C-alpha cells in the first residue's frame, strides 16, 4: 500500500511540475495570450477635432482598430501646407489595425506601420468639474487637438 501511495505522489508531483512549466512558458500578459496589442482603454471611443476652422475630422478608436474620417485633401487651404493636414497619409473611412504604446499610436496603413506621437490629458474645469479627456497630435509642426465625444 505504501508503494502505491508513493507512486501516486510521484505522478501528482510530475503533473504539477509539468503544468507549472507550461503556465510559465505561455505569454499571459494583459495583451492576451496571442500577443495582440491594443489601444489603451482610455483612448477607445470617438474623438473629434476641436478646431474646425482649418481642418475637421474624427477618429474612432476600438480595441485594436482605428477609423479616420474627414481630414480630406479638399480641406487643405489654398497655398496651405498639406503637411499640416492631420492623418493625411492614412486611408479614410476604413478600420485600420493599430495599437498605442509609450505615447505613440502605431497604425498599419497599406502594409506599413506608422508611429504617431500623441499626448493624452484630462482636466476637470468649472463650473461642473466634469472630467474632460483630450488628445493632441502634431502634424507639420501644427497641433491638432481632439475632444472625446
Description:
The chain has one helix and nine strands. The protein is α+β, with helices and mostly antiparallel strands and 149 residues long. The chain has two domains: 34 residues; 108 residues, Beta Barrel (Lipocalin). A hairpin with a 2-residue loop joins strand 8 and strand 9.
Architecture of the largest domain in CATH?
Beta Barrel
Number of DSSP helices? 1
The overall pLDDT, averaged over residues, is: 85
- Give the total of beta strands: 9
Attribute tags:
alpha+beta, 9-stranded antiparallel sheet, 1 helix, 9 strands, about 150 residues, Lipocalin
List the helices and strands and how they pair.
Layout: H1 2-25, E1 45-49, E2 57-61, E3 65-70, E4 95-101, E5 104-109, E6 112-117, E7 119-123, E8 132-139, E9 142-148
Antiparallel strand pairs: 1-2, 1-9, 2-3, 3-4, 4-5, 5-6, 7-8, 8-9
Compact description:
The chain has one helix at residues 2-25, and strands at 45-49, 57-61, 65-70, 95-101, 104-109, 112-117, 119-123, 132-139, 142-148.
